[in-house]
Every structure is written in structure tokens, then in C-alpha cells.
Amino acid sequence: MNVTSNPNNPNALKLIVAAEISKKELAIEFTSDPKQCSLNRLPTLKIDSSRKELFSVNAAVQYISPISNKDVIVANRWLEWDVSQLQPAIVSYGGSGKLDVSHKPRIWSLIKELNASLKNKEYLIKDKDNITIVDASIWVTLWSTVVVTDMGEVIRKEFPNVDRWLKHIESLPIIKKCLEKMNLERGIQAIMSMNAASWFPLNSYTGVANSQIISAEKNNNNLEDKEIKAITDEEINLVKNSWTSVVYPSVKEIPYPVLPKKGEKNILVTSALPYVNNVPHLGNIIGCVLSADIFARYCRQRNYNTLYISGTDEYGTATEAKALEEKVTPQQICDKFFDIHNDIYRWFSIGFDYFGRTTTSEQTEIVQAMFLRIKDKGYVLTNIIDQLLCENCDRFLADRFVEGTCPRCKYEDARGDQCDGCGHLVNATELINPRCKVCSNKPVIKASTQFFLDLPKIQENLKQWASKVEDGWSLVAKTVTKPWLRDGLKARCITRDLKWGIPVPLDGYRDKVFYVWFDAPLGYLSITKKYTKEYEKWWKPNNVDVNLYQFMAKDNVPFHAIMFPATLLAANEDHILVKHIMATEYLNYEDTKFSKSRGIGVFGTDARETGISADVWRFYLAYIRPESMDSNFNWVDLATKNNSELLNNLGNFINRALMFVEKNFNSKIPQMELSDEDMHVLALVQRELTNYISFLEQAKLRDGLKHVLAISKHGNQYMQYQQPWVKIKGTEEEKKKGATVIGVCCNISCLISALLAPFMPNTAREIRVQLGLSKQNYGYIPEILSIMLPAGHSIGKPSPLFSKIEEKQVEELRHKYGGKQSVSVENSQDSTNLASLEKAVANQAQLVRDLKAKQGKDVWQPQVQILLDLKKKLAEFQVNSNVSGQATAKSKSSSTAAAPEQNGNVTAEITELEAAVLKQGNLVRELKAKNEKSVWQPQVEVLLQLKQKLSALTGAVHSPPPGDKKSKKKKINS
Asked: 76 and 25, same structural domain?
């Protein structure tokens, strides 16, 4: 292995220590030219003869010295802490050797955090005789920089645990040996070298000398650490060398059909197939099709050979149920909603290469052939299961076609897959007094033979595959998948006794169809086949490298991380398997769930009626994309981001620059003679560009977008600082300077148009028209900044890019999509009357039963929620009034006389317990995703105790702890 680094960079020492820990050979070469490595980042690790490089220090040290699985989560957290918090804080502190006691900078609080973590265990991961790369990395960062400044004295006096830890590691023979290999000049020189080739986010353009470290400053009379980082000589030199010498490439023409090519970067992008019986809402859109579109557009602008396919998932019981509700055929339902989906995605400018569907002959052919193949290979089992048969309808009833009384909470209108009363998953055969949803007759239990995929037989191959590729998965995908592989797989049923689906191609079983989870993922293959008859070049590439990226929300992860790859592994036909599962958490609407029937939230058909452009929707959804946790759509926030980030920041910068060219330079880019101050802003832009590419390569779209906005902020600050409108009226030298500033700003605008295009394609096209460029492509996304618009280039006609979203418009839209308000007992004078509450519960329950007998879920589901709310109010009233459901007038009277403090205390206790249950539930989920049962089981017991206390107060039955294995398995089988 070989390392390339700039001289005196402490991060290179970390790689040397990692090699010593793992007893590996490491050659190191020093250079002052960052262009010798990937993305101009130093140090880099060349990992093999193919010249692949790692430019992330964290990735490199873990590649050299792998961390054990049980320690990897904690280790990653500390390594990330080192690079994203500690190092930027050190650069901000600047190694000046002075600590103002009235202002404790960010570095002080971080060392305090480290000191606390070392209080009970002297070392981060291992005991004192087994230094790990985590200890070594953080030690190198501190020892080489602030330890030799006045901060070192502060550490010795105030942070004894850190001081003891630092001294012990320095005394280790392995560290002394490494220091002999790289003689570091500690302090400010080490800080400057580390900052020279590492990306740190900047807050503002300052125009100061490039070698100066900027200290914290006062802001609104409050002392705070601005963490503004210096621009180094290396960065300035990179800009000087590339600005005029690097030729700006063009985007390649996209052929038809797009096929993988040997020697090129081939990217196959899919988004989870949206189900066809509903209208997608904003959460659905950003969870799959929009995220995939942004990434695919980015890849095309990098000249990667890219194909993006998706389509509607059209088989299954939900389609049958919707068809019964609307009194049409399932195919008519599919045709209707396919057109709706297609129209919505076109309006959102989703650029599929092909958008298909699963009700095709190609799908039937591929699914049936796949089944016969894996059956022939011995991966299909048969098993007899009990199902409900409606003798009146002469059909086995799928879960959604059965209703009855919940065996757990006795709710009378539970479905065959889930009870809406208590929220538990149920099996249809467990329902008390089951009834057919179509004819209301009581079904009988009858045995039925079904086919199962033998997942246990594939499990080891699946684990080996996942261990090799999961580093390319999003955190959400890894978290969801881990328990499945850890707890062991069970055989999964792949057929159903339904009418609507692909028939099983075996005599004696042709009345059965394939279950949707087996059928739908194979839709990626059949849709590609619809696009091109040469589809196998993508799915069975022969000696051609194809990278498969799949985008989805977290509920789809098991099908893409377990079921689909297991099927392809069982077939053993050299299909490509997914390398990158880019799953997200959920997007909520104003702190609640989207609901079409209740009019809550913006759905695809609503978005264009708001008067807000598709590009603004795309921008905001990417800005709040739930990449690592659930996020929330908020109207006020949408307006704020539009008005501040798009209108005042990005749009204002581009418009000012182009208007200035039109007015003062006859619409032609002026001559540019760059000074150090101009180089400074270009170096800042290069930093943002480098990080943009780094994030987009990982499909971290939200983070990438914020670096586009950072570039326009740098441009605005640069223009404001340089004041070209003043210089243009001054001396000849000042006029030249003003012209240079405007020329630089126009070139930055051109770069922004390319970087913005994956997120806002229509806006990017408009910017290019105003720049006097062809609108037929969006511009190549370069790694290195160079002139895009040379002097003399004629621009087009400038005009504003964005409009303000007014407060009045926000309130109107919030009201319009905030839900249809039902009559509620909250507004009734009788809401505190027990008899009225009981009557309201009974009436609402009857309404739910009536609607369920005649209407689809989108009609009766909101009424179930109202029923549950009423039941909760009734339970709370009974508790607070200290009466039972059959309370007498006498007991009501005595409860009225009860101390108000007592009732208030009970309500407060309920609120407190609900919060505790939510917090403990989140803790259980996190522990289950990352730890063994011995770790999370005690926390489950705590959660159950909290829920039991809450139930005692409210009378409500609460669902099992999150991640309950039994519930999960039932859900997949249903």
C-alpha cells in the first residue's frame, strides 16, 4: 500500500500508526501538489494495482487497520468526531497559543467531552496495552497541534483524564517507532498542513490574506466560535494552476438505448416501484423517484453511463380491493393510476429513461422463469397453511378481504393483517367471528398448499454478499437489514390464492398467483426489457462493471436487501446484485401523517395547484430529505427556504452578476486578471465543489445541495466586499479590478447552474439561457474549477429566477391542506359529559362498521382514528373522574368535587409517561439495530413496564416494543 501526502500533515501519521498496529507494509511519498491524487485531497491511500484511492482519512485508517464488528459503531462515531468536529475546531482555534478565559472556544468544549468519556475507562476502545486506531487518530490530532500551545497547559490543569491518556499513548513503543518515520513540526505548521489538503466547511468570504488563521469574533455582542478556516498556499496554487490551464469538458450525448460499456463507469439506477392504487404524496416522491432522479442526473452530468428505470407495481390484494370498491376490473384500476403516476412524475421533471409497469407479458415471462429456475435449483419448498375460504364467494380470502374481532383487544373491525384498534399485526385465522369483506358471510378455515422460498438455505451466501457491499448502503438500510441477518431467516411464502396476479406455471397450482414481494422486484428486469431487448447487458453483464443503485424508503429495505438478492443468488445466473441501497426514513407533514382521505398533506396532484413551481418543490424536498432520521414538511419553512436561500441568496447573486455585465460590458464577459483576493474566493468555491462531489457520489443529496448554496453565499460576500459598482467608476486599475470581479462571479454562476441541475433542472436550464449557453444539456460537473465563460462570451437576457412566497399564501396553503375538520367532541359543550362520550364512541363505532362494509380504506381509515381518539378521551375522563364506564350520577357528583390538583396530576402523569414511552421505544430501536439481545433485552423490559403504567392510567392497550421480531415476521408473511 502507498500513501501520498503533503509534508508535515498529521493525518499521514495516522496512516503510519494504522500500518504499525496491523503490522502491514506502507510506503509514503510526500508532495506539495494535491493534483496528484483523487479530488485534490491529501493524504490519499492507493489500495491496489488498479490505482483505486481512498481520500477519506477515516476510511483509509480502517482499511489498513480494520475494527472488530462489535466495536465498529463506537469507533466510527469517534473517528467522525475527530474529522468533523475536533479538526475544524483546532483550525479555528488556530494554534495561536492564547486562550481568552472570557471566551472558551469550541476546542475547549470538545476536549471536555473527551475528558468525560475517559473518566470511567481510561481509553476509548481497548485497554491500555492494546491501542486502537481510534485512540491513535485522536491522539495524533491533539498531540501534533494544540498540546504545544497554551491549550496544552489548560489540558494539564483542567482535563486530567485527557492529559493522562495523551502522555500514556506518547510513551508507547509503537508510537515512538512511528514518530521516527515521520518527524512532525508540531503546532501552527501542523495545523496549516492538515488544513491545506482537507476539506472544512467555511462560513463566509473574508478577503483576508491566505495564510492568516481567523479567530473567533463578536456577533451581536455575543462571543461565539465562528470556526472560519484559513485558505492555504496549496489551495491558492491549485486554483492558479487550474483556472486557465484545465479545459472545461462537455457532457456526452446520451445514446438510445443506453447500454453498459466496458471501461466506463456504468450506473444502473432504480427507484422502488410505487404501488398503483393510490396517489403518491410528497414523502413517497422524495423517498424513491425524486431521490433516484437527482442522483441519475448527477451521474449523467459526470459522464457516467447511466440508466434510470422505474414503474408502477400493479399486482396484489390492494388493487383487487380498490377495484371492488370502484366496481371496475383490477386492470382498469391499474390503467387509471398508472396515468396518474406518470402525469405527476412528468410534472416533477422526473427524468426516467423508461417508466413502465408490472402488468406486462415481459413481467409474466421473467417471474415464471425465475420461479422455475430456483425451484429446479432446490430453493423452493411447499408447505400447507390454513387460510380462510369464503364458500359463498368461492374464493380464499386474502388478509385484506377478512374482518373480525381482534383476539387481543376485542376491537370488532380488525382486518385480517392488522387491528386498527390496538395496532397489532394479526393472522386472519386468529380473528374471532371472521367475516368476508365482500359478502359478510362467515368463512371457514381450509388448508392450502403454498410455495416458499427457502431463505435459510441461501442465508450464508446472502451474509457473505452483504458483508462485501453494505459499506455502500445508507445508514438506514444497514440498520434495517442487520437484525434480519443477525436473527436468522425463515422460509417465506411466495404464492397466494388470489385472482389478480401472475399465475404459478405448474399444473395443479395454476389457480394460485405469486405474492407481490416475489413478483415486484423482478419488475426492474421486465421494465428494463421493455426499454431494450438487450436488457441482460445491464442485469447479466459479461465482464462489464455495472453498479446498481436502488432508492427507497426504509419499509422497502427488507425486500431489496434480503428477498430480491436471495432470489437472484438462488437462480445463480450471474445477475448483478445491488451495491448501493439508498434508503431514507419517513417524511411527515406538519408533525402528522399524510392522509388523502382526511385532506392532510400535499399529494402529487395537489403540488401543481399550489402555484409553486416544480423546481421549488424539488429543492425543498431535497433540502429536508430524511437521510438519517424522520424529517418534517413545514409550510413556513418552505417559504423561508425559498425566500432566503433561493431568492435572496442564489437568485440574487446570479441576477446581480448578469445584470452588471449587461449594463456595463455590453452583455459580454469582461477580461479577468486575478489577484490573491480573487484566488481566495475561487479556493473557497473549490472546497465546496470538492465536498459536493464527495456527497453526491455517496448519494447524500441533502448535504450536497447545501454546498451549492454555500458557493452562492461565497459569491455574494465576495461581490459585496469588492464592490465592483464602485470600482467601475474609479481609476483604470480599479475598473480592471471591477471587471475581474464580475467575470469571476459570472463563472461561479455557470458552475452553480451545473451543480444545481440535478436538483432544479428547469431553473438550471433558465440560468444557462441567461448565461448565453445551450439549454440542451446542463453542463458537465467538474472536479477542478476552471474558466467556463471566457472573456468576450456573450450572455443572454438576465431576469429574476425566483419569486417570493408571501405569508398570506403560506397560511392559505396550510389551511387548504391541513385536513377536513370532522365534528369533534372537543368543541361540544357536552365533551366533559360521560354519557355523551360513551354515546359518541358507540355512534362512531357503528359508523366505522358501516363504512367498512361498503367503502375502501381511504374512506373509513380516518374515521377509525376519530374512534380511537374518542376512546382515549373516554378513558381519560374515566380516570380523571375516578369512575367506571357505568358511573352513576352519584359518582359523577363526587368526582366533580374532587380536588382539581388531583385531576391535573393524573393528566400530567399521562403526558409524562407517553413521553417516556416514546423515548424508551426509540432507545430500544437503536439498540436492536446495533447490539445483541443481551444488551437490548433489559431495555425492552423497561419499555414494557412504562407501557403497563400508561395502560393503567389510560385504559388503552399498547403495542409491543418497536422492532418486535414476531410482528416483523408476520408483516412480511402477510
From this structure: yes
pTM of the model: 0.65
Per residue, what are the HEC states of 463-502? HHHHHHHHHHCCHHHHHHHHHHHHHCCCCEECEECCCCCC
Domain tally for the chain? 4
Residue 855 and residue 973 share a domain: no
Alpha carbons 766 and 779: distance in angstroms, whole number = 12
Indicate whether 855 and 974 sit together in one domain. no
What is the β-pairing status of strands 380-390 and 354-357?
A: unpaired
> Which H helix or E strand runs over 838?
helix 834-854
30: its cell numbers: 510526500
Where the chain has pLDDT below 50, the residues are 35, 38-39, 50, 95-103, 122-123, 125, 198-228, 821-832, 882-904, 955-974
> Residue 508, by phi and psi: left (phi above 0), alpha (psi -120 to 50) or beta?
left
Q: Which residue in the block uniquely carries the three cell numbers 459526470?
A: 302
**In terms of residue numbers, what domain contains 729?**
639-807
With residue 385 as reference, give the H or E element that holds it: strand 380-390
Distance from C-alpha of 840 to C-alpha of 834, rounded to nearest angstrom: 10
Report yes or no on 334 lying in a domain.
no
Which residues, in sequence order, are bridge partners of residue 217? 224
CA 586 – CA 458 distance, rounded (Å): 30
d(CA 699, CA 372): 36
pLDDT digits (tens, 9 = 90+) for 753-768: 999 999 999 999 999 9
Strand order in the sheet with 266-271: 354-357, 305-312, 266-271, 546-553, 580-584
What tens digit of pLDDT does each residue of 232-253 get?
Answer: 888 888 999 899 888 898 999 9
Alpha helices, DSSP H only, in 781-826? 807-816
Task: Extract long-range pairs of 254-260: CB within 8 Å, 24+ residues apart.
Answer: 254/300, 257/531, 257/532, 257/534, 258/305, 258/306, 258/307, 258/353, 259/305, 259/532, 259/534, 259/537, 259/538, 260/305, 260/537, 260/538, 260/541, 260/544, 260/546
Virtual torsion, Cα 404, 405, 407, 408, nearest 10 deg: 130
Task: Name the residue among 307, 284, 281 with its Cα closest to residue 295.
Answer: 307
Residues 6+ apart with CB under 8 A from 659: 798
List alpha helices for 258-393, DSSP H.
282-287, 289-301, 317-326, 330-347, 361-376
- At 384, is the secondary structure helix, strand, or coil? strand
How confident is the model at residue 423, as a pLDDT?
Answer: 62
Cβ atoms within 10 Å of 907's Cβ, excluding its own: 14
CA distance 658 to 808: 31
